[in-house]
Design a protein that fits this description.
Blueprint lengths: L4 H4 L12 H4 L4 H7 L6 E4 L6 H12 L2 E6 L5 H14 L2 E6 L6 H13 L2 E7 L3 H4 L2 H4 L3 E4 L5 H13 L10 E3 L1 H10 L4 H14 L8 E3 L1 H8 L12 H14 L3 H13 L3 H16 L4 H17 L5 H13 L5 H14 L60 H25 L1
Helix pairs in contact: 5-6, 9-10, 9-11, 10-12, 11-12, 13-14, 13-15, 14-17, 15-16, 15-17, 16-17
């Protein structure tokens, strides 16, 4: 049986990797490691179908090392021993260890000395956060890199390559794909290239040629093969973004009915990942300090929705939409950090004041580090009159509290009290 298209199109070297340029692009860390022939074991973590296996395969192809694949959950210690024996014979083996967070102590204890010797270069792949799920003994012997969801442009690039490649892809099929179908393929899979290529291959192989001998892939065909409805059949493809934009703006504008309408359109399109991400952004950007508990509830609802999957996920999502719509709104913290970022990007940063610098090393006092720092807990209210901002920004003010929720009202009152106290101390120094 022929291997799936996603398997056949795996990159043979780093230049063929689609996306993840923050890791494999020119001058980036993994490319540097390969170029310098200084590979070390690593853990790649991120969503399914984003290129973890592809990067491992490309590293092996670029270095000409032997490449083996195992699964930490299902393969045994004996399987690891076979790889170790091969490493002794050939010198170095790159081992892709899928679900590395499932590695038990017996396998781990066997693997550790081989990682330390460099005979096995392990590339662990996981969808779980390795800082939480992976044993510290493994973490300390690896570098950890986050693999990000592919962009629509990345997926379109890979789709076009698969359609053109006559050796590994679908280049021997006479295919014409409508632009709306092509765009739906890139959007409906939410950055999962494996799903996109699987859907494309199914569409090509299951659609009979028409009278002109051409396999015509329409939006309807792609919807069926992906089991994801497009938001609309608009020709310019902007409806996808229009609905997402209207969804957030309806919640920001406290219109429950409109927000539920746009939620329903996104649910019908199967865009669970987009809904979840957008709701968490809204919880912190538009609700913010006016109602922090609503943002926390949003995170919990998103976790529930991801566990449940569609269609049941619509229930916690609907609860959250109503909650966020009717919540008081504040963007004060979001505006404040953007104002601070604007200063930094314009070069207005300045040196950290000497009394705030790290003093926990030999010779720090000789450099004047930490001298004169006053510990706030030694003072009433933990308020102390000392400068925290760099000299060139010492009078900067970024946060402007709003009074749209009880929580931020309380924060605003405390902020004003501290500002007034500081002003009084400044005036007393002048006098």
């Amino acid at each position: 049986m022929e291997k799936p298209l996603a398997f056949r199109m795996r990159p043979r070297n780093l230049d063929e990797v689609v996306g993840q340029q923050h890791l494999v692009g020119p001058g980036k860390i993994i490319r540097r490691m390969v170029t310098a022939k200084m590979l070390s074991s690593m853990i790649l973590y991120g969503p399914p179908g984003t290129g973890k296996t592809s990067i491992a395969s490309a590293i092996a192809g670029s270095t000409q090392y032997a490449f083996r694949m195992l699964n930490a959950a299902t393969d045994t210690k004996k399987d690891l021993q076979i790889v170790a024996e091969e490493a002794k014979m050939s010198g170095t083996v790159i081992l892709l260890l899928d679900e590395v967070h499932r590695l038990d102590k017996t396998k781990q204890d066997f693997l550790l000395p081989h990682l330390e010797s460099g005979r096995i270069i392990m590339i662990g792949a996981t969808t779980e956060n390795p800082y939480i799920t992976i044993n510290p003994a493994i973490r300390s012997r690896t570098q950890i890199f986050e693999v990000k969801p592919l962009t629509e442009s990345d997926i379109l690039t890979a789709v076009d390559q698969a359609l053109a490649d006559k050796e590994r892809g679908l280049g021997n099929y006479p295919v014409e794909i409508e632009e709306t179908a092509r765009r739906h393929l890139s959007r409906a899979t939410n950055g999962d290239l494996r799903s996109a290529l699987n859907g494309l291959e199914l569409a090509v192989r299951s659609t009979p040629p028409e009278a002109d001998g051409i396999i015509h892939l329409t939006l309807t065909v792609m919807e069926e093969c992906l089991q994801r409805k497009a938001l609309t059949h608009d020709k310019d493809g902007d409806a996808h973004y229009d609905v997402i934009s209207a969804f957030q703006k309806s919640i920001r504008g406290s219109d429950v009915n409109a927000a539920l309408h746009y939620l329903a359109r996104l649910v019908e399109a199967g865009d669970l990942a987009i809904i979840c991400r957008r709701l968490m952004v809204i919880g912190y950007e538009d609700i913010g300090l006016a109602n922090p508990a609503a943002a926390a509830r949003t995170v919990n609802a998103v976790l529930a929705a991801e566990r449940l999957g569609l269609p049941e996920a619509r229930i916690p999502l609907a609860d959250t939409v109503v909650d966020l719509c009717l919540s008081p709104k504040s963007n004060s913290a979001y505006v404040a950090v953007d104002a601070a970022l604007a200063d930094i990007r314009e070069g207005n940063a300045g040196a950290v004041p000497d009394h705030l610098r790290d003093s926990h090393y030999q010779g720090a006092k000789d450099l004047g580090r930490g001298i004169g720092y006053q510990y706030p807990h030694d003072f009433e209210n933990a308020w102390v009159d000392q400068q925290y901002l760099p000299d060139k920004l010492k009078n900067a003010s970024y946060y402007q509290p709003k009074a749209t929720g009880k929580y931020e009202q309380a924060l605003g009152q405390q902020y004003q009290r501290i500002q007034q106290w500081r002003q009084q101390h400044t005036n007393s120094k002048k006098n």
